[in-house]
Amino acid sequence: MKIKVVTDSCCDLPFEYTSAHNIQVIPLTIIMNGEEKKDDLAETMQYESFYEAILNGAMPQTAQANVYQFAEIFRKCAQNSEPVIYIGFSSALSGCVNSARMALEEVKEEYPEAEMAVVDSKCASMGLGLLIHYALKQIKDGMNLQELVEWIEANKLHIIHWFTVADLNHLFRGGRVSKAAATFGTLLQIKPVMHVDDEGRLIPVEKVKGRKKSLKALVEKLKEDIVDPENAEVFISHGGCLEEAEEVKKMILEECPVKEIKINYVGAAVGSHSGPGTMAIFFKGVKR
């Protein structure tokens, strides 16, 4: 039987994509203006209204998926003798993977013969989405569950993440930069260029002055790190700045032509911490 792929809403894949590939997406919860909403890939909470609310002063918080949500899906797959894999948002940034592992142990006690796996992607946003995109190709080529787990573990750290933000204060609220760095960086128009390291953490790598230079820096990083560009697929995610994302796409195609580029929003769960104006690129490279 074909492997069932499960992920969480931090994958930032388009809803149309997950639906077309029968991917089960577990939503994180967004608490904003006193209301709880599900981050369901913009099916009920549109990206535009989410970012507009932040620009108008809303300060959203997030709650991870719980053990029950995972156990419900794992149990259903076990009952149907359907192999299932959860490919989760980096454990360095969320507790979702831990919840999934607890759920797997619980369901395994009831169904010891069930084929189930949990993988910590060490990826974020459409970096997780890109890893899933490649995993689906392996399933299509006939990999069984154990082979797929081994393939993901061997390849996940080749998914390269580079990103920048428009407002450092969102990263300060999430504990990613100090208050002083956020204050002085904002005053001086300093933009961080960051990546996700092998532990799945957000790490500042360098600082540039001005928005345009920060976007250009992302393209330069791609040119340095990408492998086999003529056959490469690049994902771009953005925090409500589609026009700039299209500009980044144009720069990539002009300076390092690749096979395909997909653009989507940074979803509500990730965007709650990175804020409007986030720009990120994801691709396959030799190492992070």
From TrEMBL:
Q: Which Gene3D superfamilies match?
A: 3.30.1180.10, 3.40.50.10170
In Pfam terms, one family for this protein is DegV
On the tree of life, the source organism's domain of life is: Bacteria
Which keywords fit this entry according to its UniProt record? Lipid-binding
Q: Where is the signal peptide?
A: none
- InterPro entries named among the record's database cross-references: DegV (IPR003797), DegV_C (IPR043168), DegV_domain_contain (IPR050270)
- Keyword check for Signal, yes or no: no
Annotated GO molecular function terms are: lipid binding
- What does the protein in this record do? May bind long-chain fatty acids, such as palmitate, and may play a role in lipid transport or fatty acid metabolism.
PANTHER family with a match to the protein in the record:
DEGV DOMAIN-CONTAINING PROTEIN DR_1986-RELATED, DEGV DOMAIN-CONTAINING PROTEIN YITS
Q: What is this protein called?
A: DegV family protein
The species this protein was found in: Cellulosilyticum lentocellum (strain ATCC 49066 / DSM 5427 / NCIMB 11756 / RHM5)
